């Protein structure tokens, strides 16, 4: 699973709020029936590759991997792009410039199609956060980055878990700091979206039963 700190946090002790071990997406995917789940989340990682950032981007991490062994590859990111004011770039299938969000998303989709055409690439849109309705320095809101993910996923026939409007997801009760989910937040996402998707995916792919 590729992503930012919200993925990386799985099995980590909280850095803010009450101290507890975080149970994030990778653990829930493993519990759903996958024998092996590889957590490639990087705290601070963006969809866009910024050559001036010391933090590897999601495409940079993906470039070190071969997708062919993985039946399901998950990508959860976008909120750091919002805060970093990553440019969206051009929405064209030919755009694989990983210094733009559209290009990075295309790069990931095309990498999966090339290396594992029978596999599934699952995108997650960003969860709500305190600043989601405030424009960044490019005048973009969090929703614009979610829209880019939905658009590229649809264009490339990839499924999406749309986390934008999780019913009952209260930022005060479900996050550590208005951004990172706590265990209640992760559990709600799993119950409403992740677990049903994984259950359906496993059934369709006859992984067991």
Structural summary, described in words:
The protein is an alpha/beta fold and 209 residues long. The chain has a single domain (2-205), classed as SGNH hydrolase (Rossmann fold, 3-Layer(aba) Sandwich), CATH 3.40.50.1110. Helix content is 38%, strand content 8%. The protein has eight helices and five strands; from the N terminus they run βααβαβααβαβαα. The protein has helices at residues 5-8, 25-31, 58-63, 79-84, 101-115, 142-155, 171-174, 183-205, and strands at residues 2-3, 40-41, 72-76, 120-124, 160-161. α6 links the parallel β4 (120-124) and β5 (160-161). The mean pLDDT is 94.
What can be said about this structure in brief?
This protein is of the alpha/beta class.
């Amino acid at each position: 699973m590729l992503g930012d700190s919200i993925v990386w946090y799985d099995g980590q002790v909280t850095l803010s709020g009450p101290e507890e071990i975080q149970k994030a997406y990778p653990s829930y995917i493993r519990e759903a029936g996958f024998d092996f789940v590889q957590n490639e989340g990087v705290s601070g990682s963006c969809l866009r590759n910024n050559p001036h950032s010391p933090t590897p981007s999601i495409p940079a991490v993906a470039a070190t991997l071969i997708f062919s062994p993985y039946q399901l590859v998950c990508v959860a990111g976008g909120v750091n792009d919002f805060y970093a004011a990553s440019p969206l770039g051009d929405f064209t299938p030919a755009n694989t410039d990983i210094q733009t969000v559209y290009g990075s998303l295309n790069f990931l989709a095309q990498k999966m199609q090339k290396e594992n055409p029978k596999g599934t690439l699952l995108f997650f849109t960003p969860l709500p956060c305190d600043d989601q309705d405030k424009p960044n320095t490019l005048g973009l809101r969090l929703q614009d980055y979610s829209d880019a993910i939905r658009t590229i996923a649809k264009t490339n026939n990839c499924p999406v878990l749309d986390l934008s409007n999780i019913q009952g997801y209260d930022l005060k009760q479900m996050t550590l700091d208005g951004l990172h989910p706590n265990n209640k937040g992760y559990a709600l996402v799993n119950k409403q979206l992740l677990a049903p998707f994984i259950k359906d995916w496993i059934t369709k792919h006859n992984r067991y039963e």
